[in-house]
Structures are given as structure tokens and as C-alpha cells.
Amino acid sequence: MNFLDGVDPEWIEALAPVIKDIERIEDALRGKGFNPAPENVLRSLRKPLSQISVVIFGQDPYPNPQHATGLAFSVPSGVTSLPKTLVNILKELQSDIGGDVPTSGDLSSWADQGVALVNRILTTSQGQSEGHIQLNWQVVTNEIARILGERKAVAILWGRHAQELSKYFAEESVISSPHPSPLSAYRGFFGSRPFSRTNQLLASQSKRAIDWSLA
Fold it and tell me: What confidence tens digit (pLDDT) does each residue in 140-188 have?
């Protein structure tokens, strides 16, 4: 088990200050069951850092091992019973950019285009939300936010946990709203148009727009 296997070399270099923290957490989890699978814990960092233009921060992985992929909010292709938070994201996507509400919750096409889908806490116990808060993954994800903020990435911050990272980004590069969970989506997530607003910000930076459409 090596969480850093598959992480792009640009990220390995940039994350040098927290590599020992990653190794510490890896040691703490050795031999234990958790989500996502060990090889996917840092899946969101497989794209070269220089190609990342947008980051969406989640909270922690789905507790269902069939859902957790290592990409925040995403589920594997073929999953038909989608988490309710993801259903709300897809509803807002349709409302924002048009077309039909996607039936697939596989967001890997976003990651392929340079959207980092990063959970605030990168692992959890199987069947338990927020099961690994005590491991202090936040040290690592704070550093990820700091690095992306320095590179002027657009940050989509949904909910309190993600919004704690706003300090690392220029104010004009932050798109913030309540979390898309059923408990808070109607408090301002719906109608926030994060996808079209992101592309507007990217255009202002002369960067390529994201094709948010899903199969």
C-alpha cells in the first residue's frame, strides 16, 4: 500500500512539505478497511499540477465502498442509485448549462479536463461518514489548497468545510455556496450556477472552458 503511487510527479514535488504526513496516515491505516481503496486515496492528484485550472472541494469520501472513487462527489460509471448530494449537483448542472439531467454520476471527465475533485478528508471508515477526522488529513488538503491558490485556480467551495479553504484563494477566484446535500441545497446551492460562473472566470484568465456535460 502506497498512497503516492500514481500521483503525478509535479504534485509529488509540490507536496514535499506534507509527504511525511501522508506517510504517517498511511501507516495508521495499514491493515484496516477504509474508503476509497488505497490506490485511489490520492486519485485526484493524478493529473499534472500544471494542467489543473479548477478545484472542487468535498467533505470526505462516500461511506459506501461501491460509491467511493477517490474523486470528490463522483461515483463509478454504472452506478444507478446515486447519493442524494450528487443528485442535487446534477440537477443544478442541468439548470445551469441546460440539456437533460445526467443519469451518470461519473465525474471523471471533469478530472480529465483539469478539475481537481478533492475531499477535505481523504479517507473514511467503511459505512461511516467523517470516520477519519482524527487522522488530520486537513494538513494535506490545506497544502493542496495553498498550492492551487498560488496557481490561481478557480475554487468551487460548497459548504462550511470547503469554505474554510477560501483564505488560500484570491477572492475573485472563489465560487462559494451552501453544500448540495439535501439538508442545505435549498438554502442557496440551487440557483448558484457554479458551472457557468466557473467558465466565465476561466475566460477572464484566458483559460480553456470546462465541458461540464456528462453522459
Answer: 999 999 999 999 999 999 999 899 999 999 999 999 999 999 999 999 9
Residue 135 to residue 156: CA distance in whole angstroms? 24
Percentage of the chain surpassing pLDDT 70?
Answer: 99
Asked if residue 69 lies in contact with residue 105, where contact means CB atoms within 8 angstroms, the answer is no
Distance in angstroms (rounded) separating the CA atoms of residues 200 and 31: 46
**pTM (2 decimals)?**
0.95
Contacts of 102 (CB under 8 A, 6+ apart): 90, 93, 94, 213, 214, 215
Q: Which of 177, 52, 164, 168 is nearest to 117 (CA)?
A: 52
Element (H, E) at 84: helix 84-97
Question: Which residues have a Cβ under 8 Å from the Cβ of 133 and sit 6 or more positions away?
Answer: 60, 121
60 is catalytic: yes
Q: How crowded is the C-beta side of 102, counted as CA atoms within 13 Å?
A: 24
- Round to whole Å and give the CA distance between 136 and 117: 19
Of the residues 21, 27, 60, 112, only one is catalytic, namely 60
Residue 175, φ and ψ in degrees, nearest 5: -115, 115
Model confidence pLDDT, tens digit, residues 89-109: 999 999 999 988 898 999 999
